[in-house]
Structure of GlsB/YeaQ/YmgE family stress response membrane protein:
Amino acid sequence: MSLLAFLVIGAIAGWLAGKLAQGRGFGLLGNMVIGVVGSVIGGFTFKLLGLHSSTMAGSIVTATVGAVILLFVIGKLKS
């Protein structure tokens, strides 16, 4: 996957996760960071569950799930 596609997917996933978990986004750079880290977490989690995505939509779902997990953990650590 190209770096640009990876960053676009990360930005979309970070924005979606922000909307789902916090009710707001985190700005373009924040969304990208959350989405990229979320894609790593989501990929690891989906691999453990035996799931695999080969489409762009599947990659966005995987990254979004990972980003929501990341935001949940960060929220628990903060409180």
